[in-house]
Structure formats: C-alpha cells, structure tokens
Design a protein that fits this description.
Blueprint lengths: L8 E8 L9 E9 L5 E7 L8 H7 L12 H11 L4 E4 L2 H15 L11 E3 H8 L4 H9 L9 H18 L7 H8 L4 E2 L6 E3 L5 E3 L9 H4 L1
Parallel strand pairs: 1-4, 4-5
Antiparallel strand pairs: 1-2, 2-3, 6-7, 7-8
Helix pairs in contact: 5-6
C-alpha cells in the first residue's frame, strides 16, 4: 500500500434496519483498521437493533430478526467500538453520507462523542465518481468506444444517448428488452410521487414527506 499514514485508518461498513440516518439502527458492523506499519486488525459484530428489521431490508443484507435476537445491543458494545476506532481516520463506500453519520447517531444515543471533526474521512465512492466520470461523454466512450465531439448540442447528445442505450441492451444480458422492466430498472431507490423526490411512496402505497423535519412521516398525518 503506497500511502503514508500518520495514524490508523479504519474502513467500516454497516448493515442496518434501513436508510434513514437519524432513525435506523445498526444490525452488523465490520471494521478493518490499517496501522501506519501496514498491519491490520478487524472488528466484526452482529447487533440487536432493538426494533424489527423490515423484511425488505433483511432480503438485501440477509440478516433477519432471529439472527440478532441474542446479539448485544449497540449500547452494550459502544465502548469497545469507540476504543477500536479511537485515534483513527475513517473510510468506507458512501460512508460520508451514510455509514459515518448513522454510526455517530448510534453513539449519540449512548451519550458518546467520537469527535468526527478531528478525523480525516475517506469516501471511496466519491473518489470513484470523481475519477470515473458519470457523464454522457464518458458513457459514450465506454459503451460505444467513440468520442462525442459535439457534446451539449441537443441533437448530438440525443443521438449519443440512444446509441448508449442500445449498446447497454447488447452488453447486459439481464437487461430485459421490455419497456415495463426498463422503466422499473431505471428508477433509483424508492418510488416517489414527484421527480424532485420530495414525496416518497412506501411499500403500502402511503405518501411520505421526504425532506425537512417531517421526513418519513405520512403526508396525511402532517397536513
């Protein structure tokens, strides 16, 4: 590893009850700590979140309520986790937006301040997105092996987008050539009522506020 470390760097990943940073709980935590001499230490723990794990979430990470029924709560292991990452910079994949904020919330509920401000935070997803551009020009080069010379010309961009789409259908066998499938596949994350994603729709077709202080609440309850 060609990187100079002045203090340990701890990469972490959380499996949780959901994706709400302020409300959801950890069900598994894994940390790999790299020391300045390149030696490593690992910490892995299943955690009882104290609340039911939604079935749709369990189907993603494979951890069900019965898997953690005898596991310790976060408060029971908070101190040992705090000690394991003490003095470490932190890293992960999408960790700046999800894993680290959710971990901080769990510590906060235990009245533990782990002082994020003094740590360097390395988000591998952000590096990936900055190094491998997610633009039409990049997609045209990747899928079609062509240079998009007239980028930002409406007709050229439209033609390139169509070429990329057709190349995607040829490249990925699991992409069904069916409009209903492609529509559902094109939707990122949860379903929403509006394109700005300010009103979400849950699995029971309830409309939820998806921003601000009422985020996660039913629209009918708020209004």
């Amino acid at each position: 590893m060609n990187i100079k470390l002045e203090k340990p760097l701890a990469f972490l990943d959380l499996e949780t009850t959901g994706v709400n940073v302020s409300k959801d709980k950890i069900v598994e935590i894994a940390i790999i700590k790299i020391y300045p001499d390149n030696s490593r230490a690992e910490y892995v723990k299943r955690i009882n979140p104290g609340i039911p794990i939604p079935l749709e979430t369990s189907e993603i990470h494979g951890i069900y309520d019965f898997d953690v029924i005898n596991a310790p709560t976060f408060s029971a292991v908070a101190k040992e986790i705090e000690q394991f990452i003490k003095g470490c910079d932190l890293g992960g994949f999408n960790s700046n937006k999800f894993d680290i904020p959710l971990l901080v919330e769990e510590f906060y509920r235990c009245e533990i301040d782990i002082d994020i401000q003094s740590r360097k935070l390395i988000d591998v997803q952000n590096i990936f997105h900055k190094m491998e551009q997610r633009t039409l020009v990049a997609a045209y080069q990747f899928y079609c092996n062509k240079e998009l010379n007239n980028a930002h010309s409406a007709l050229a961009d439209t033609a390139a987008t169509l070429d990329v789409f057709l190349a995607q259908l040829d490249k990925y066998e699991n992409l069904e050539k069916d409009m209903n499938f492609l529509h559902e596949f094109s939707i990122q994350g949860f379903k929403t009522m509006d394109f700005a994603k300010r009103i979400a729709i849950d699995k029971d077709n309830n409309y939820l506020i998806n921003f601000g202080k009422h985020k996660g609440k039913k629209v009918v309850d708020v209004f």
